[in-house]
Design a protein that fits this description.
- The complex is a heterotrimer of chains A (441), B (279) and C (279).
- Chain A contains 17 helices and 14 strands.
- Chain A is of the alpha/beta class.
- Chain A has 2 domains: 200 residues, Periplasmic binding protein-like II (D-Maltodextrin-Binding Protein, domain 2, 3-Layer(aba) Sandwich); 201 residues, D-Maltodextrin-Binding Protein, domain 2.
- In chain A, the strands form 5 sheets. Chain A has a 5-stranded mixed sheet. Chain A has a 3-stranded antiparallel sheet with strand order 11-8-12.
- In chain A, a hairpin with a 2-residue loop joins β4 and β5.
- The longest helix of chain A has 17 residues.
- Chain A is globular, with a radius of gyration of 22 Å.
- Chain A starts with 7 loop residues before the first helix and ends with a helix.
- Chain B has 279 residues and is mainly α.
- Chain B has a single domain, classed as MetI-like fold (Orthogonal Bundle), CATH 1.10.3720.10.
- In chain B, α1 packs across α14 and α5 crosses α8.
- Chain B starts with 6 loop residues before the first helix and ends with a helix.
- In chain C, a hairpin with a 7-residue loop joins β1 and β2.
- Chain C is globular and about 75 Å long.
- Chain C is built from 12 helices and 2 strands; from the N terminus they run αββααααααααααα.
- With 279 residues, chain C is an all-alpha fold.
- In chain C, α4 runs antiparallel to α7 and α7 crosses α9.
- Chain C has one domain: MetI-like (MetI-like fold, Orthogonal Bundle).
- Chain C has a two-stranded antiparallel ribbon.
- The chains are: A alpha/beta (441), B mainly alpha (279), C mainly alpha (279).
- Chains in contact: A-B, A-C, B-C.
- At the A-C interface, α1, α16 and α17 of A face β1 and α11 of C.
- Chain A: Pfam families: SBP_bac_1.
- Chain A: It comes from Nonomuraea soli.
- Chain A: It is found in: Cell envelope.
């Protein structure tokens, strides 16, 4: 799962310790560039420490690292499960006990580039075959600082049975306006229906908003860090939300919390525009409506427009103070760009017998719609890989992104509740983000 | 005023006591209930089961947390218990140049929000290469201003004649402190011990910042991390299990302090009653 | 004799110089710069202070704290005084049980109890809504978030207030009341003309201590609500932390000093007000 849970709480320590370089002390060093490992010795040797997030994903990677060790028997890997959100930023700056490589949310990479190895030269051979979105979020001033790992395309999850009963052909849902029409239809059949899920968690809501923006080729800031909320694309999204809410077509609940689950199970929700990782719900959580959910590409904002956008995602970084950066690169190259490595992560394993289906690789050659890496009974692989080819590139995520949830994320909630207009949301959020975040950075 | 308490007065006091005790009782008793029952029937008592505790122990290094907290408590607590009464004694019973200025410093320190110092302190730890060390947990914030202030108030109440009697015997200044002052302020010291234990045990913001490796985490840091992990992972997770683990961790953290407090309560309360608010 | 007081204070001074004065001076200098934790700090003069003083969010955070103050301090003084008066009765039975019950919450670890609060006040499955058979967003609606947090603070600290007030009450010799009763003073008359003036000092002490605590309040909203919903529990202390979170360290430092100034003024004012009534 790629739900990054950046909140006030989880950032406590990470952000606090950004402080740990004396001001005016050592000037920011020019980033160290990592060169390809010298492959003079036939078999690379050494020991690396790798940090990963805890939970099921750790077990998946642990097994995959086993495969890596089979290919590189002389590299010893200390694979640790760590609270990365709280600890990595601290560690990078204080330079104490730095790992050789770590998993990290894409949203953090832009702000920490100076503590990371410049991986541009190493990634060059794979550049053409990597999803453009993932390259762009890992790029700072033209240099790449993270090994792109998962891609999290947005999809439209829908209730196959309800649509069939109302004789709505999913294929006809090509624009967001079509979605409103179909929802109206569902509501006429069942007055209790509030078919479209809009999320009540401000953080996830904003992440979701950026998916809709990415779909239209934009994002909160451009490559120079200038705010671009005041645009046709964002206005289009907000106006659509306002209409959907006003027409009472919306279930406004927090992501997969009890209230949300209840309204999913009782048939109130029929459309969930969300990232691929919502697959977790039909596969593991839902009981009554298990087997009734199907994924399809998102509707487009304009006829013929892109049918997907990205929501969340992570990459791997190699700290500039790593002791064995080249060996860490070998590991990440294996996991992200080599067929056996990718298969080891996404294919069937002891944790997920059908394979890891909450994201897909960002390495395009692995995304053959006909050759699924994971098994599922919803046609997810095919839909997701096709949607993935459609995703527009983006800009690096600004360092203050999570903090802007206090403004944009909260205002989005007020829009859904009918307390702010689209213009209010744009004006209010822009003003505050500019003043409190951009101007202060 | 000491007429016999009326019946309604007992009712009021008992109700109030119930309000104060119930959340603690609820947390403790619920932590031994099967997780599902915590949600479905929060008032009932069922079980008992240790499942919540088993799950919690599997998830977090709470043993390490206890060990580190114990170590910090021992060293930092000893420093406070020794140096603060001594400084309080100096401020209460001596006249010396610069006294007002120095006591002003103590009062100033009382007014500072902890957060003001955190960034510079962290920079300092980094410069000293103290990040992830016990001294970073122990030294900043030891010999604290509140304890000195408190001790000064307590010691000020001791009649000077008592001390002068000691001086006549030719005892050294420290011997007077140890032999005359300490026995008199024993209740105050008991109160200080409880307060200090509580403050160190519950300290949360600084340890979270000063330490980022598992080996040095204190109990509160482990707890905070657990809460954070649980909130992060509760997306899709089974609510009941999550709550069961939280309550188990919370209960296990509050028990030691509660037991210490109940054992020392008489001294603690008498100490506050005796020593407080003279100034 | 000459050297003794300095020696006794030395440990405090050493710790203060190393981990108090130095970081404080550093933070003060930081408050005039723009700095994000890496690279060169830039001197910006009073810009950080001006930014805060002209920023509605800064004032909102103070307003949030002011509301919390109103929800906490008057309630605590009134309820605490009532409980203390009942407890002061020499013929009260179960006295030590009541004292322990009231002060037990004071020794519980905040992080643990904050989590218990989250569970108890959960909108969907919490104990409180279960008992009331209600669907109130205690922690998720802007109407209730402040009172619910204030309740946690009250629950945790009122016991301490009761003991402090009790200390003040017990300083009143019983003969004073007896004399008043002989003069035919009514019970309420006795309370206002004898009890109140004598506990005024304790009240002043409490008001100052709790004003400091409320305006510096950080851990409660940090753990329970993270400042939400819609910033309704972003207290002055949490807002200060937000700058640190955004690694806007200069502004964070400036905010700290504004807060210290405010707390100082508030303490002085409350002491004056309570003293003025004496005359």
């Amino acid at each position: 799962m790629s739900t990054s849970s950046i909140s006030r709480r989880s950032l406590l320590l990470g952000a606090l310790s950004l402080a740990a370089c004396a001001p005016g002390g050592t000037a920011a060093p020019t980033p160290s560039r990592l060169a390809a490992p010298s492959v003079t010795s036939s078999s690379p040797k050494g020991e690396i420490t790798i940090w990963n997030r805890s939970g099921d994903l750790f077990k998946v990677f642990d097994a995959a690292i086993g495969k890596f060790r089979a290919a590189y028997p002389d590299v010893k890997v200390n694979h640790l499960s760590v609270d990365i959100g709280a600890k990595l930023a601290n560690t990078l700056i204080t330079g104490t006990d730095v790992p050789d490589g770590s998993f990290w949310d894409d949203a953090n990479i832009g702000s920490q580039a100076e503590h990371l190895y410049d991986l541009t030269d190493l990634i060059a051979p794979y550049r053409e075959q990597t999803a453009p979105y993932k390259l762009s979020v890992n790029t700072v001033e033209g240099r790449i600082y993270g090994v792109p790992w998962d891609l999290d395309p947005g999809l439209l999850w829908y209730r196959e049975d309800l649509l069939a009963e109302a004789s709505i052909d999913p294929a006809s849902l090509t624009t967001y306006d079509d979605l409103l029409v179909a929802s109206q239809k569902l509501k006429e059949r069942d007055p209790k229906a509030r078919p479209i899920h809009l999320d009540k968690n401000p953080f996830l809501g904003q992440l979701w908003l950026e998916m809709l923006a990415n779909q239209q080729g934009t994002s909160m800031t451009d490559a120079q860090g200038r705010l671009r909320l005041d645009s046709e694309e964002y206005r289009r999204i907000f106006t659509w939300i306002q209409k959907a809410a006003k027409d009472k077509l919306v279930t406004h609940t927090p992501y997969l919390e009890p209230a949300d689950l209840a309204s999913i199970e009782n048939g109130q929700q029929a459309f969930i525009p969300w990232a691929i990782w919502w697959s977790f719900a039909p596969q593991q959580l839902l009981k009554q409506t298990k087997g009734k959910w199907r994924p399809m590409p998102l509707p487009a904002w304009t006829p013929g427009g892109a049918r997907s956008g990205v929501m969340g995602g992570s990459s791997f970084i190699i700290p500039a103070k790593a002791k064995n950066p080249q060996l860490a690169w070998l590991l990440y190259e294996f996991l992200c760009f080599k067929e056996p490595g990718i298969a080891a992560v996404y294919g069937p394993n002891s944790v997920y017998p059908g394979g890891l289906s909450t994201s897909i690789p960002s390495y395009l050659p692995a995304l053959d719609p006909e050759k699924p890496l994971f098994k599922d009974d919803m046609g997810l692989w095919k839909v997701a890989t096709e949607a993935a080819r459609n995703i527009p590139p983006a800009a690096p995520i600004p360092a203050w992104w999570a903090k802007s949830v206090d403004y944009l994320g909260n205002n989005l909630q007020l829009l859904i509740e009918g307390k702010l207009s689209p213009d209010d949301v744009i004006a209010e959020s822009s003003k505050k983000i500019q003043r409190n975040l951009i101007d202060r950075s | 005023m000491s007429s016999r308490p009326r019946f309604w007065q007992y009712v009021v006091l008992i109700l109030l006591a119930a309000v104060f005790l119930y959340p603690i009782w609820w947390a403790l008793s619920s932590s031994f209930k099967p997780a599902a029952d915590i949600i479905s029937d929060p008032l009932s008592l069922s079980g008992p089961t240790l499942d919540n505790y088993r799950a919690m122990f599997a998830d977090v290094p709470i043993g390490t947390g206890f060990a580190n907290t114990a170590l910090v408590l021992l060293v930092k607590g000893a420093m406070t218990m020794f140096f603060c009464p001594l400084a309080g004694y100096a401020f209460a019973k001596y006249r010396f140049p610069g006294k007002d200025l120095l006591f002003g410093l103590v009062l100033l320190t009382l007014m500072l929000p902890t957060l003001v110092l955190i960034i510079p302190l962290l920079l300092e730890m980094s410069a000293l290469n103290w990040v992830n060390t016990y001294q970073a947990l122990i030294l900043p914030g030891s010999v604290d201003a509140f304890s000195i202030f408190w001790m000064r108030q307590t010691i000020a109440a001791i009649p000077d004649e008592l001390l002068d009697a000691g001086r006549v015997d030719g005892a050294s200044e420290f011997a007077i402190f140890a032999r005359v002052v300490v026995p008199v302020i024993r209740p105050g010291l008991a109160a200080l011990a409880v307060l200090t234990t509580m403050n160190i045990y519950n300290d949360f913001v600084w340890p979270v910042v000063a330490v980022n490796d598992e080996a040095h985490q204190t109990l509160q840091v482990v707890l905070a991390t657990l809460a954070q992990d649980i909130t992060a992972n509760r997306i899709g997770a089974d609510f009941a299990t999550v709550w069961g683990e939280l309550l188990a961790a919370g209960s296990i953290a509050l028990l030691p302090l509660l037991i210490i407090f109940i054992l020392l309560q008489r001294h603690f309360i008498n100490g506050i009653l005796a020593g407080s608010v003279k100034g | 004799m000459r050297k003794a007081p300095y020696l006794f204070i030395a440990p405090f001074l050493i710790v203060f110089a190393a981990f108090g004065a130095y970081p404080l001076a550093y933070a003060f200098q930081l408050s005039f710069t723009r700095w994000h934790g890496a690279g060169q700090a830039r001197w910006v003069g009073l810009d950080n202070y001006l930014f805060l003083l002209t920023n509605p969010e800064f004032w909102e955070s103070l307003a949030n704290s002011a509301v919390m103050w109103l929800l906490v301090v008057p309630v605590q003084i009134v309820a605490g005084l009532a409980a203390a008066v009942l407890l002061a009765n020499a013929r009260l039975k179960l006295k030590s049980f009541f004292r322990v019950a009231f002060i037990a919450p004071f020794v519980t670890p905040l992080v643990a109890m904050a989590q218990v609060w989250i569970v108890i006040f959960d909108q969907d499955y919490g104990l409180v809504n279960y008992v009331l058979n209600a669907d109130i967003g205690w922690l998720t609606s802007t109407t209730w978030s402040k009172p619910t947090l204030a309740l946690l603070f009250l629950w945790k600290t009122t016991g301490f207030a009761i003991i402090i007030l009790l200390a003040g009450l017990q300083a009143v010799p019983a003969q004073v009341y007896e004399a008043a009763a002989l003069d035919g003073a009514s019970r309420s008359r006795q309370f206002w003309s004898i009890t109140m003036p004598l506990v005024r000092r304790s009240i002043a002490f409490l008001v100052v201590i709790q004003t400091l605590a409320v305006f510096q309040m950080f851990a409660e909203p940090f753990v329970v609500t993270e400042g939400g919903p819609y910033g309704s529990t972003t207290t002055a202390g949490l807002y200060l932390y937000d700058h640190i979170l955004a690694s806007d360290l200069g502004t964070g430092a400036a905010n700290s000093f504004l807060l210290v100034l405010l707390v100082f003024v508030l303490s002085v004012v409350s002491v004056r007000l309570l003293r003025a009534k004496d005359e």
